[in-house]
């Protein structure tokens, strides 16, 4: 099945604004204090935000997209997985030379962060972040461990599904999109108050990576495919910018 087979065809690629959740969502506790209660003001970007600062491709190391080995050089603990896909424009064309960064909890569901107080142990060999540059056809790939679910102080017993955070940069750091990838079959997706702020199921499903046995490595690791679509009706759901890049 191709990308165009998954959506209705049409001459235009306007973003469906109903995908974006309301800023005030009582089920997501911290939104109650962060949501704006006055009309929003649109502020245009400046030339410096649109043109730079830029990142240096030569700064990407050989192990930067290998989260299993890139922290200490010793293998991290957990289920090994390949996370791969393509960065695409609204017409399904690959977008090359895009900086893709990810960060995640370890296999036990704990982040390497001083404010993470979850009882799961830290993995001494897992830093939890990586980066890569998309290829000529927009392809990207990471080798990592499947992150664990973890509790968070929202309601009495809320848990975040297994997920990986993704940051996509355009030609400069002022062009940044942020999203999350979830895993096919995780029952916590439907129970997550953050996920449930998204009003349409098709927008949620665009954030769920299907198992890809064609890319799995026998006796080594499973693979999950996650395409990142910029702009238009096919756009991935982004946390920080409705219209994409």
UniProtKB/TrEMBL annotation:
EC identifiers of the protein? 1.13.11.3
Q: Which GO terms describe its biological process?
A: 3,4-dihydroxybenzoate catabolic process
Q: Which UniProt keywords apply?
A: Dioxygenase, Oxidoreductase
Q: Does the keyword Oxidoreductase apply?
A: yes
Q: Does the keyword Oxidoreductase apply?
A: yes
Domain named Intradiol ring-cleavage dioxygenases is located at 83-111
Membrane-spanning intervals of the chain:
none
Family annotation (Pfam families): Dioxygenase_C, PCDO_beta_N
What PANTHER family does UniProt report for this protein, alphabetically?
A: DIOXYGENASE, PUTATIVE (AFU_ORTHOLOGUE AFUA_2G02910)-RELATED, INTRADIOL RING-CLEAVAGE DIOXYGENASES DOMAIN-CONTAINING PROTEIN
Name of the featured protein: Protocatechuate 3,4-dioxygenase subunit beta
Q: Which organism is it from?
A: Paracoccus aestuariivivens
User: Which gene does this sequence derive from?
Assistant: pcaH
């Amino acid at each position: 099945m191709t990308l165009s087979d998954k959506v209705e065809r049409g001459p235009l690629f306007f973003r469906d604004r109903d995908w974006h959740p309301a800023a005030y969502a009582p089920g997501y506790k911290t939104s109650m204090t962060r949501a704006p209660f006055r009309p929003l003001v649109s502020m245009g970007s400046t030339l410096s935000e649109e043109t730079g600062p830029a990142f240096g491709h030569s700064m990407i190391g050989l192990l930067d997209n290998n989260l299993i080995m890139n922290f200490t050089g010793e293998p991290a603990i957990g289920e090994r997985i390949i996370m791969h896909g393509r960065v695409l424009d609204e017409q399904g064309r690959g977008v090359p030379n895009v900086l893709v960064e990810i960060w995640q909890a370890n296999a036990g569901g704990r982040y390497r962060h001083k404010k993470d107080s979850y009882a799961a142990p830290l993995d001494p060999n897992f830093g939890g972040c990586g980066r890569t540059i998309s290829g000529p056809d927009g392809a990207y790939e990471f080798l990592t461990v499947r992150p664990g679910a973890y509790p968070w102080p929202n309601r009495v017993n809320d848990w975040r599904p297994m997920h990986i955070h993704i940051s996509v940069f355009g030609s400069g750091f002022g062009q940044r999109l942020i999203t999350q990838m979830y895993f096919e079959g995780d029952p916590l997706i439907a129970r997550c108050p953050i996920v449930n702020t998204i009003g349409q199921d098709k927008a949620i499903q665009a954030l769920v990576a299907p198992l890809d046995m064609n890319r799995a490595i026998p006796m080594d690791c499973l693979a999950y495919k996650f395409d990142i679509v910029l702009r238009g009706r096919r756009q991935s759901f982004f946390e920080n910018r409705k219209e994409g890049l």
